[in-house]
Design goal:
Residues 102-247 form the EngC GTPase domain. The chain is α/β, with parallel strands linked by helices and 346 residues long. The chain is built from twelve helices and 15 strands. The protein has three domains: 11-79, SH3 type barrels (Roll), CATH 2.30.30.140; 102-247, 3-Layer(aba) Sandwich (Rossmann fold), CATH 3.40.50.300; 255-345, no CATH class. Bound molecules: guanosine-5'-triphosphate and zinc ion.
């Protein structure tokens, strides 16, 4: 059993709450274990933020940034069960996905104004976010450079049905509050290089921490040291996670996330005459019909097929019942979405 005084604890600023407390109480970690959140993972060592400061510990099993752990005698005695897992495809030739961050609640998918032709990337990242269990939010950055803001925001909304879309400029400050409001719980920023992630992070944090890349901190022996900070409490509540590995991601084992990101396509496919329709040349294909009728952009359909091909189709098929339950939940979203495509086609 672990011991933890909730009195004066800094852990809530990192996202600790009563359900983590419950999980910690029911873990089999030895007496005297202290709870903390993993801020950094190196080979053979993790950095854990605890009530007594930042401590190093040796992991016994795989840990990721964002994990809640119990530390005992310099060892990670327990990793509390994850609420969400953000993972990407492993380097080519390896089969396991790489966990980028654990217990992420919000994924801010950044798209710089002026490059929205690359919606394919947006769709991929939204799929990855849904798959993790977190909530994606689309963030159009650098809107001070955007002439047709309403048009671009509408374009993005079409690429991500059911996903909140916010515009922001770190130059004028417009939209920063909206992004802060959308950044619920533990938040990560993803998106292409140069999208303005670091700039936005600084605006959210109200500091220049990330520009510097490192801050002065007091270590557990009271010395001043320079450390990298990957887990930063936001002034508006919640925590921002910034790790380099989060910045370029692929998709694997993400059938569910892809289906959710493309709920409009999946919903149409349910109306195909054949349950295993590949939407190629089959008669009675509702997806092709929708593309022909301008109810579904052909580009979006191709993007869906491309992502699904990348992914492992088989996994999603093994549980058709779960899949159809999911689809029922998204039906309303996709209904709204089709109305929007139609309105736009006029
Ligand atoms: N006009 C304008 N420029 C911006 C804005 N936000 C960021 N920039 C500029 O865009 C460039 C890239 O910004 P960064 O914040 O470094 O982008 P990043 O996404 O962190 O890039 P990586 O670290 O490569 O992933 C910098 O020159 C910023 O000054 C904005 O709101 N408006
Ligand atoms: Zn079909």
């Amino acid at each position: 059993m672990f011991s933890h005084s909730t009195h004066d604890s800094v852990l809530p600023t990192y996202g600790w709450d009563s359900s983590w407390e419950q999980l910690a109480l029911s873990s089999d970690a030895p007496a005297g274990s202290v709870p903390g959140r993993v801020a950094r993972v190196d080979r053979g060592r993790v950095d854990v933020l605890t009530d007594t400061g930042r401590v190093h510990a040796a992991p016994r099993s795989a840990c990721a940034v964002g994990d809640w752990v119990l530390v005992h005698d310099g060892v990670v005695a327990a990793v509390l069960p994850r609420r969400t897992t953000l993972a990407r495809a492993a380097a080519s030739g390896r089969s396991e996905a790489q966990v980028l961050a654990a217990n992420v609640d919000t994924v801010l998918v950044t798209v710089p104004a002026g490059s929205t032709s690359r919606v394919g990337r947006v769709e991929r990242l939204v799929a990855l976010a849904w798959e993790s269990g977190a909530t994606p939010v689309l963030v159009l950055t650098k809107i001070d450079r955007c002439d047709d803001l309403a048009g671009v925001l509408a374009e993005l909304a079409l690429a991500a049905p059911g996903v909140e879309v916010v515009g922001v400029s770190a130059v004028t400050g417009e939209g920063v509050d909206a992004v802060a409001g959308a950044a619920q719980g533990t938040t990560v920023l993803v998106g292409p290089s140069g999208a303005g992630k670091s700039t936005l992070a600084n605006a959210l944090l109200g500091t220049d921490l990330l520009a510097v890349g490192a801050v002065r901190a007091v270590d557990d022996k009271g010395r001043h040291t320079t450390v990298h900070r990957e887990l930063l409490p936001l002034p508006t509540g919640g925590v921002l996670v910034d790790t380099p590995g989060l910045r370029a991601v692929g998709v694997r084992d993400a059938a569910e996330g892809i289906d959710r990101a493309f709920a409009d396509v999946v919903d149409l496919a349910e109306h195909c005459r054949f349950a295993d329709c590949a939407h190629e040349h089959e008669p009675g294909c509702a997806v092709r019909a929708a593309v022909d009728a301008d109810e579904l952009p052909g580009r979006r359909f191709e993007a869906y097929r491309k992502l699904r091909r990348e992914d492992e189709w088989a996994a999603a098929r093994t549980d058709a019942r779960l899949a159809s339950e999911r689809r029922a939940r998204w039906k309303q979203v996709t209904k709204d979405q089709r109305a929007r495509y139609r309105a736009r086609g006029r």
